[in-house]
Amino acid sequence: MTIGSKINKTYTLEYLTTESENKYFDRKSAAIKPSDLARHISAFANADGGVIAIGIEDKSKEITGINACGEDKINAFLNGPRVHCKPMPDFQEEFIDVINSRGEPDRILLLHITKSVEQIIRTDNDSTWLRIGDSSVEMKGDNLRNLEYEKNSRHYEDELHPDAAIDDLDKELLRQYAEHIGAEDMSIEDVLRARGFLKSRDGRDHLTNAAVLLFAKNIYQFYPNCRIRFLRYDGVYAGVGTDINIIRDKTIEYPLLRIIDEAKKFIETQLREFTMLDVQSGKFKVVPEYPEFAWQEGIVNAVTHREYALSGNYIKVSMYDDRLEIESPGRLPNIVTVENIRDVRYSRNSRISRVLTEMGWVRELNEGVKRIYRDMESFFLDDPIYTEPEQSVKLTLKNNIVMRSIRQTDRAAAEVGNDVWNEIDDLEKKIITFISGRGRVGRIDIEKYTRKSTKTVNNRLNHLIELGLINAIGNKHDPGRVYEFSKQ
User: How many of the other CB atoms lie within 10 Å of CB of 265?
Assistant: First the structure.
C-alpha cells in the first residue's frame, strides 16, 4: 500500500521526500513558527493553491516529524489559516503516519490550501504573498494592485458553458486523466466536480469553459478558435497580395489535452536539421535548427496561458528562414511583464495549467522560460525575445542561419581554393557549399535547395565533376545516386 495523501494522491511519501519544491508544493520543518507559516499559506491561496508539508526539512528533505513539537504547537499549525490569515482561506488538514529519521513512529502534517478565486488572502500583519515558482514572494506597489485587480476579475475558465453537456466530452481523455490523478474508481461526474469542472446552478449541473476546452470531443463545435495555425514562409518576411510567400499552411485543431502533442508532432516535421563539420573531431554531426525544449515549451506556454475569452483569435506559429514566432492571444497575465518573464510565473488559467501539469505537459514548472534562455545560449543562438503586439504575446526564437551560411561558404571556398572558387558561377558555389556542409547529397535535395530545374542542376553537377570538385557515387541513371565533396 502506498503511503501518502488520501486527499490528493499525487503527494505520496516518495513525492514529499524527493520532489523539488515547486509552485504547488512546499515543505517546512516543525521548528517553524505558526505565525511565519502564514506567508506561505497566503502565497498558495493567492496563486493556484498547493500543499505545505510540515515535518520535513526544507533543504535535506529529512523526515523529522511533528510529534516532538507537542500538541499545543500542532494545534497552532492547524489554526494557522484561521488565526494568522484574513480572511481565512479554504483548506484541509491531513496527518500521515511515518517513521522519522530517528527510526521512531511519527507524523507529517499536510495543509492543503485552496486557491482563493475572488479575494486576496493576507496575513494578520496585512502583508500579501504570492507563490511564484518555488518561492513565496511579498506583493507590494504595482504588483499588489495588479494582483488585487486579477482577484476581482472574472475567470473565463471557471464560467459555466451554456450549451455543453457531459456527453460532449471525450470519455477516453477523461479516463486517462482520472488514472493520472489516482481517481479511476470515481465516476466521471465526481472527477469533474472534484476539480471544479462541473458546478450546480438552479438545480442543474453545468460544465465550465475549462472542462470543455480540455476534454471536448469536437472542440470546433464550441470553440472554433481553439486551434494552432502553422505558417511557413519562403524567406524572412511575410509577403502579401501578389508577393504572398506562404509555402505551408496547417491548422491543428483539438481539445487542449490533445493539441500540444499533435502540434509538436507536426512542427517537428517542419524544422530543419543541419549537418555540420565538427572541426575538432573532423566528423559531421547533425545540429537541430532550434533547441527542442525551447520551441516545445513555447507551444506549451501558449496553450496553457492564452486568453481564451478572446474567442476571435488563435495561436499562430510562423516559421521564417531566420526565426520561429509563437504568438498567443491575450497580454501577459497579472504581474508578469516582458522584462521579468524570465523569473516570474503566474497562471491566467490555473485550472487548465493544473490539469496540463498533472498530465505531464507542463513538466518544467520551476524552469520554464529560464530554460528556454539557457538552451538557446547553449546553441550559441540569440536570447529569446518576448513582445506584446496588440492583444497578444509573441515569442521569437532566432536561428543563426545567416552566420551559418557565411561560415559554410567561407569553409567551402577555402577547401576549393580561391583561384578555382572565382572561376565557378554562383549556382555552382551554392551547390558546393550545400554538399560540403552535408557529406553526401542526392540530386533531388539539391534541386529543392537551389530551386532550379533537373536539367540546370545536372549541367552544374557534371561541370563540378569535371573540375574534380565533387564525386558522384552510383550510376547516373540510379535515382539513389549521391554526390560528395572531394576536397575534404
Answer: 10
- Terminal-to-terminal C-alpha distance of the chain: 63
Could you tell me the CA-to-CA distances from 399 to 124, 243, 404 in Å, in that order?
Answer: 51, 24, 9
Q: Tell which CATH architecture fits domain 402-485.
A: Orthogonal Bundle (1.10)
Q: Is 203 left (phi over 0), alpha (psi -120 to 50) or beta?
A: left
Q: Determine the Cα–Cα distance for residues 376 and 370; give it in Å rounded to an integer.
A: 10
Instruction: Identify the CA nearest to 169 among candidates 209, 121, 218.
Output: 218
Write out the H or E segment, with its range, that includes residue 376: helix 369-378
pLDDT (tens digit per residue) in 380-400: 788 999 999 988 999 999 987
Closest CA to 69 of 55, 81, 80, 51: 55
Q: If DSSP codes are grouped into helix, strand and coil, which group holds residue 251? A: strand
Q: Is 293 helix (H, G, I), strand (E, B) or coil?
A: helix
Q: Which fold has domain 228-399?
A: Heat Shock Protein 90 (3.30.565)
pTM here is 0.60
Closest of 101, 73, 141 to residue 335, by C-alpha: 141
pLDDT digits (tens, 9 = 90+) for 184-237: 889 999 999 999 999 998 889 999 999 999 999 999 999 999 999 999 998 888
CB 353 within 8 A of CB 300: no
CB 447 within 8 A of CB 453: yes
Strands 315-319 and 228-233: parallel
> Cβ distance 392 to 313 under 8 Å?
yes
Whole-number Å distance between alpha carbons of 259 and 324: 19
**Residue type, position 299, single letter:** I
Rg (CA), the chain: 28
How many whole angstroms separate alpha carbon 167 and alpha carbon 217? Answer: 9
**Cell 475567470 -> residue:** 155
C-alpha–C-alpha distance, residues 370 and 347, integer Å:
16
Can you give the length of the chain in residues?
488
- Residue spans per domain, the chain: 13-139, 158-222, 228-399, 402-485
Q: Any idea what the Cα angle at residue 207 is, between residues 201 and 208, rounded to 5°?
A: 95
The CATH number assigned to the domain with range 13-139 reads 3.30.950.30
How far apart (Å, rounded) are the C-alpha atoms in residues 64 and 102? 8
Contacting residues for 210 by C-beta, under 8 A, at least 6 apart:
157, 158, 196, 197, 349, 351, 352, 355
Q: Please, are residues 298 and 230 in contact by the beta-carbon 8 Å criterion?
A: no
